[in-house]
Amino acid sequence: MRIDVLTIFPDYLAPLELSLLGKARRDGLVDVRVHDLRDFTHDRHRTVDDSPLGGGAGMVMKPEPWAEALESVIAAGREELGDDAAPLIVFPNPAGAPFAQATAQSWSQRPWLLFACGRYEGIDERVYEHLAARGHELALASLGDYVLNGGEVAVLAITEAVVRLVPGVVGNAASLVEESHSDGLLEYPLYTRPATWTAPDGTVRAVPEILLSGDHARIAAWRAEQSRLRTAERRPDLLAPPAPGDAADTAPAS
Ligand SMILES: COC(=O)c1ccnc(N)c1
């Protein structure tokens, strides 16, 4: 998988070099390239933003640097991936569709993701129009109903959620199967040794007896029940039928 990231804060993406992701890159499972949007400006101040037309607070990211940067990054990617290669262009955006585990599953099977990190109040709408008109596939993805100062933090989260599902990245693929949301439910409670623990306040806490029974069928059934109970208690919405268009996996509505 190839991942390109366009940002005015390349250093924000440094954590992509670390740990699991760093190893995946060294193992050649993921190829991550971070690009500075300001490298695609031509004025002395390397300007990427301007006041909103029509008035309003804050600044809007100008279309020229974005159009030039995206064309350049896509062309460079095609040099290596082939002329027919096409990235899914992801704009982390609070107005996007919710990024969910299903989205991560879907995107982990794509050969090329291109993340475009907006800052300030956002990106000039004509950039989206321009990309869509040129046939690119876009997705606006939201991590939840809150606002960040920029898309970079979202890219770190989305990249981790996606890349960890790429075959070979996580040593034991079985560990991906019973996680929260992997089957639409929250994960059951987890325990490890000691089987009986005396807490600092003197309370003795034992693990559920069933887990020490060695009866794997009954343990599996208990865990499935615990997942259902936990989901019903904490996230009853996950038990409701999905509404249409529930995940950030397709081009945004115009
Ligand atoms: C600038 O990006 C955001 O504020 C953002 C991106 C993705 N999800 C969010 N909830 C916010």
From TrEMBL:
Binding site for S-adenosyl-L-methionine: 118, 143-148
Chief localization: cytoplasm
Residue span, tRNA methyltransferase TRMD/TRM10-type domain: 1-239
Catalytic activity: guanosine(37) in tRNA + S-adenosyl-L-methionine = N(1)-methylguanosine(37) in tRNA + S-adenosyl-L-homocysteine + H(+)
Highest taxon, organism lineage: Bacteria
InterPro entries named among the record's database cross-references: Alpha/beta_knot_MTases, tRNA_m1G_MeTrfase_C_sf, tRNA_m1G_MeTrfase_TrmD, tRNA_m1G_MTases_N, tRNA_MeTrfase_TRMD/TRM10
GO biological process, one term: methylation
EC number(s) from the headed UniProt entry: 2.1.1.228
Keyword S-adenosyl-L-methionine: yes
Subunit-structure text: Homodimer.
Protein name, as recorded: tRNA (guanine-N(1)-)-methyltransferase
Lineage: Bacteria, Bacillati, Actinomycetota, Actinomycetes, Micrococcales
